[in-house]
User: Fold these one by one.
Assistant:
Number 1:
Amino acid sequence: MPHTQPMPHTPPMTRSRPPYTAFALTGLAAALTLLTALLIGWVAPGLEATQQRLVAVLVMAAVAAITVAVTRRDLLTSGRLHPVLLVIPLLVALAPFAPGLKDISPEAGSTLIIGYLATGIYEELWFRGLILDTLASSSPTKAALLSSGLFGLIHLTNIAFGANPAITAAQVIGAACFGIGMAALRLRGVTLLPLIIIHALTDIALQTGDITSTWRWILMISGDIVLLAFGLVLLSKTRRPTTLTASSRPKLGGR
């Protein structure tokens, strides 16, 4: 069996100890999120929890975008669109819209769209961008599972903004399953932009689709299961280096 060549732009330390870098990046994200929560509580103690989360995710989106632009700008353009691979994730994301749109105010709708778009930018750039890239020397399955596990754990920081611990624990598991599907897409060469859009659409649809709370949970759980299965199938067919670098990436475009 031929040996996989090392990634051209992966630093020697990252190749030899990728899990440590992934853990460090996750710890940094958690620390920055908690620090933001403390600063918001100090500067604006009367701010509602929803507004606190919005400010925090905007800060983290900015941090992620600047970090990627400064340290690994090639991650923003590496990969292709691969429309066929996006069909199932898009169907999962748009399912809550099937009954129609919920009647919400323009202000609430704008807040949800901005907040979840920022969430998609932050979490995809950080976890499917930076962290997955540090795992370039691992097998695709190991890289996806580890990065997705860390992605699930980062949701524990929601407790700092008043989230229910039991619901947050369930969210950790669901986010990890969701992350496996998204990581598998990235490892199959999908560029980050459609992942950001799908991520944002998934969250927006669950909050603005005209569905009951019960159906929201059903669609959320079933969607995570579908993406978990979808991701595992993709990973079983992935036999190449786990990330695309500036020297090896194809130009953006469909198959």
Number 2:
Amino acid sequence: MTASNESAPDPSARRRRAHFFVGLLGVLAFLASGLEMHFRYGHLRSFDMATRLSFRSIHIYLLFASLLNLGVSLGARAHEAPWKKRVAAVGSALVLAAPFLLGVAFVTEPLADGAHRTVTSFGVYAAAGGTALLAIAGAATNRR
């Protein structure tokens, strides 16, 4: 092993750290959004049922995406095949983006007019699609 190989950063280690910190920040955002619903909006008592459902569902989606990132941080690994690296990188990026999208959705969508929750949808689709891509890359690795 040469000195250049020893100092080269491990992409899977960077990815694990990124997922861990995004997951941790997302859990903190989940706690903060719960406190906001409690203190700023009085447990959402003054809102109609649709608005309450919107707040609470995005709040839970944020927790889901954050815990998903924490889980991915435990299992992210390096892939040898170039296509697996690309699939895992795209999947990882989507899972990393999900808590941010859902955080934006929590702030912008529940009180907006209409039932369209575009940012929430993108956040949920990013988490689901990213998880599927990570599973494909991982399953292909396991079948060697």
Number 3:
Amino acid sequence: MNQALLLAVLMLAACGGTAPAFAPASPKASAPAQLTPIGIQISAVGLAFFPLFVAKDLGIFEKHGLDVKLVAMPPPAGVAAIEKGDLQFMATIGSAA
């Protein structure tokens, strides 16, 4: 379930929405009454995680009922935060080797 939700969030972040890139959507206009809080760990604020920041700024997460908090922290701390329940997902980069 969590992997499917993460995949959906990342796909939405990559695809954008119907709003033009130069005019952020108003999240308050289309946001549901109750947003689901989601914490996503990122290892650094950089281009690798740019789609997540764009999706947040354009209100795409809010449009789909998610209150996303992007948290920059080292991956080992992210694993501990997920185990503790403080975060729900990790967005990581790296090689499979």
